């Protein structure tokens, strides 16, 4: 897909950006804004982690609901219906904390894989200095 095609397709997602901005992102000279990153992931049917190089898998692993017996799903739904709104919010909070902890663990594994915190800090300093002149573009402004 050409840069012109990508720019035209992004309009469908409510993102207007120039071909030069897309080229700069492809070359690693600029980072995409969050809305642009999400739109690109949707366009190419891949995860944002994959686009950012945090995963080798184009799509996240899906939970195989078919492998959970229907009776267990029904029992879980029945138990959840017995909880008050406050209890459901507390359960959701615990689940989110668990998911966050797993995310942090995966990020720490990634940091270790690239050589530790010192290597990550150097990479971030390098990115920061290379992006300093173009902070407007990093916020999603068109080039």
How does this structure look, described?
65% of the residues lie in helices and 0% in strands. It is mainly α. α1 (3-11) packs across α2 (19-26). The mean pLDDT is 76.
Topology summary:
Elements: H1 3-11, H2 19-26, H3 34-44, H4 48-51, H5 70-82, H6 85-113, H7 117-131, H8 135-138
List descriptors.
8 helices, mainly alpha, 143 residues, 65% helix
Task: Tell me the β content.
Answer: under 5%
Form type: extended
Sheet of most strands: none
Distance between the termini: 20 Å
Q: H/E order of the elements?
A: HHHHHHHH
Q: For the CA atoms, what is the radius of gyration?
A: 20 Å
Number of helices: 8
**Estimated structural class:** mainly alpha
Total count of strands: 0
Mean pLDDT: 76
Low-confidence stretches: none
Percent helix: 55-70%
Brief digest:
This protein has 143 residues and is mainly α. The protein has eight helices and no strands.
